[in-house]
Design brief:
CATH architecture of the domain at 21-141: 3-Layer(aba) Sandwich
Helix content: 25-40%
Largest sheet: 6 strands, antiparallel
Bound molecules: coenzyme A
Domain N-acetyltransferase: 28-190
Distance between the termini: 12 Å
Order of helices and strands: EEHHEEEHEHEEHE
Strand content: 25-35%
Keywords: Transferase
Shape: globular
CATH topology of the domain at 21-141: Aminopeptidase
Radius of gyration: 16 Å
Pfam families: Acetyltransf_3 (PF13302)
GO molecular function, one term: acyltransferase activity, transferring groups other than amino-acyl groups
Organism: Gordonibacter urolithinfaciens
Low-confidence stretches: 1-9
């Protein structure tokens, strides 16, 4: 991967409101969210089927808080969940990115992903998750990245496995009054590099 080491001036978005582009893959553009993404985020965060693992849909206020949390993460951490757009059309189809999460008494870098239901089963989540994993290794210098997933979320567990992750442990979260066992998956940079073909592999285009 060619590292996106300097800030990118380029922005995207169907209507020109899009935020800073962070990463590109063959089919996708990952960019920072902006307040103008509220309606697009609602299509996932207010869809009962998509939000099954969160025990229900978000209210408008919760969607706004979610969006504000990402904007605040960009400022404080330099990363967060990013908006995922289709390269061809600029349509926002989901979210994928990196966040700090608590595990084992410390904080770990997590690859997270949520996609609009109309865009499931196309491999987009795996494509985005891989490029985020590699960004964590190659740009942010992480040695290990995690995905912490509710044990009943088969689709998400499958993405983690396709992202080269293996189960390292488990934990229980309590959310909305529900006890939720989670499985902790991770991938290491060393294992990823060991899996590379001898001549290396260019996984992503940066935004420069
Ligand atoms: C988790 C989630 C992102 C997974 O989405 P997904 O579409 O199943 O995952 P992928 O993008 O990897 O797609 C894989 C599927 O696309 C298919 N596919 C089609 N074209 C493909 C391609 N070019 N490359 C790879 N897979 C492709 C695969 O065969 C697979 O099919 P299957 O689902 O029938 O087994 C989605 O279910 C979701 O948004 N859920 C709600 C939010 C959530 O729970 N997030 C996780 C919180 S931990």
């Amino acid at each position: 991967m060619r590292a996106a080491r300097s800030p990118c001036a380029k922005t995207r978005g169907v209507d020109g409101r899009g935020g800073k582009v962070i990463l590109e893959t063959e089919r996708l553009v990952l960019r920072e969210m902006t307040p103008g993404d509220f309606a697009a985020l609602c299509r996932t965060l207010q869809d009962a089927e998509a939000m099954y693992a969160y025990e229900g849909v978000f209210s408008d206020t919760e969607v706004r808080e979610w969006l504000d949390r990402q904007l605040s993460r960009y400022r404080s951490d330099g990363f967060g969940l990013w908006a995922v757009e289709l390269s061809g059309t600029g349509e926002l189809i989901g979210q994928c990115g990196l966040t700090w999460q608590e595990f084992d008494g410390g904080r770990v870098m997590e690859v997270g992903y949520l996609f609009e239901r109309a865009f499931w089963h196309h491999g987009y989540a795996t494509e985005a998750a891989r490029v985020c994993r590699d960004y964590a290794f190659d740009v942010l210098g992480a040695e290990e990245v995690f995905s912490i997933i509710r044990d009943t979320n088969a689709a998400s567990l499958a993405v983690a496995r396709r992202n080269g992750m293996k189960q390292r442990g488990s934990l229980v979260k309590h959310y909305r009054g529900v006890r939720m066992p989670h499985l902790v998956f991770s991938a290491t940079r060393v294992a990823r590099d060991g899996a590379l073909p001898a001549d290396g592999e260019r996984r992503t285009r940066d935004c420069g």
